[in-house]
Amino acid sequence: MTRFALLIRPSANRVYAEAAAGLTAAELAVFSESVLGGALSAAEGTRRGGVPYLEFEADQLRPEHCAFLANVSSLYALFEVSGDLLRPVELTGLDCYDDDLITIQKYQGKTNEQFTKLLLNVTLLASAFAPDMLSRKLTVLDPLCGRGTTLNQAIMYGYDAAGIDEDRKDFDAYRAFIKTWLTRKRIKHKVSYDGPVRRDGKTAGHRLQVSIAGSRDEQNRGQPQLLDVVCADTTRAGEFVRRATVDLVVTDAPYGVQHGSRSAASRLTRRPQDLLAAALPVWATLLRPGGAVGISLNTLVAPRAEVAAALRSAGLEPLESPPYLRFRHRVDQAITRDIVVARKPAVS
Ligand SMILES: C[S@@+](CC[C@H](N)C(=O)[O-])C[C@H]1O[C@@H](n2cnc3c(N)ncnc32)[C@H](O)[C@@H]1O
Q1: Residue 347 CA, ligand 1 centroid: distance in Å
Q2: What is the pLDDT, as a whole number, of residue 260?
């Protein structure tokens, strides 16, 4: 058995930094169970030279194992432990673009970036498409996308990204950000649509569609990445996204608490679990069989059991095995965050 020590990425957010070790240990367990054939032992916190590490053992880490582990959300560096020396393990992740795609936007109500990556990873690893993580251009939908943290993470991985949010300010801010960013970085892209969407003679929403030709994926296979963002109520998602075309639904649900100035009356009056109960049957139809939904939620407002019941009513199967029950963590006095992941049966 060889011992490995993982150094966690320093987080700008103190609260997330406190939770990161436990969350990363659970994420490693999901990676191990899903795509590494159970190769990793349970990770435990240690200190070396006064610095905290997460350590685990494995018979050997093959190159394909390392290719998956390179994408662990909070991983900064991985070392093989040799006596009291640490030998760096060479890791190359999926990232296709500069990391300011993810970090540059700062706004109240932004979902933590490392947490968003964790949520995407865990959802992907729960789906039937986990083995394709490194090789296929997956399609990720965030049906409550805000200003696009999940969309940016999906784009970063070289995937297609679709988003829906009813907040016009968020939509406009994201549209301005991504168009400016792509232009400033000189990434080849084409805005194929940017304007209102009309249904029955009325404006049903606004939409931005961009094809991006910048990623490794495109260079390898001539397939541009597609970004499709709509400003509309998420329960109307079926009007904008075709059935059974999405591999993963990944979203950070409203927390049911006031977020400073981002406190539109509708957001406060609607309980997140009511929104999810109304929207999940629609989102489920958009998923391909074998796809998965990953939702982060405030368990102080939306108890996990209620959300799991709404997932089951929508024909999805919540994952209840141990690693998936280890993502609960405190964000602040009003928010204890958890992740619920569910799979769409492969044959429905
Ligand atoms: C927790 S925030 C998501 C933040 C996002 N992950 C980000 O980092 O920008 C939840 C989002 O759900 C959106 N929302 C709430 N109810 C909605 C509905 N019925 N339809 C569409 N979007 C909705 C809100 O506008 C808000 O942006």
Answers
A1: 31
A2: 43
Instruction: Give residue 201's pLDDT.
Output: 87
DSSP state of 325: G
Is 272's C-beta closer than 6 angstroms to any atom of ligand 1?
no
Q: Probe ligand 1: pick from 144, 177, 229, 267, max atoms within 8 Å of CB?
A: 144
Q: Provide φ and ψ at 325, rounded to 5°.
A: -105, 15
| C-alpha 243 – ligand 1 centre gap (Å) | 22
The string of pLDDT tens digits covering residues 128-171 is 999 999 999 999 999 999 999 999 999 999 999 999 999 999 99
In this structure, are strands 246-252 and 139-142 parallel, antiparallel, or unpaired?
Answer: parallel
pLDDT tens profile 16-26: 888 999 999 99
Straight-line distance from the first to the last Cα atom of the chain, in angstroms, rounded to the nearest whole number: 42
Q: What is the three-class DSSP state of 307?
A: helix
pTM above 0.90, yes or no: yes
Asked whether 340 lines ligand 1 (CB < 6 A), one says: no
Q: How far is ligand 1, taken at its centre, from the CA of residue 203, in Å?
A: 20
Is the CB of 165 within 6 Å of ligand 1? yes
Separation CA 19–CA 312 (nearest Å): 29
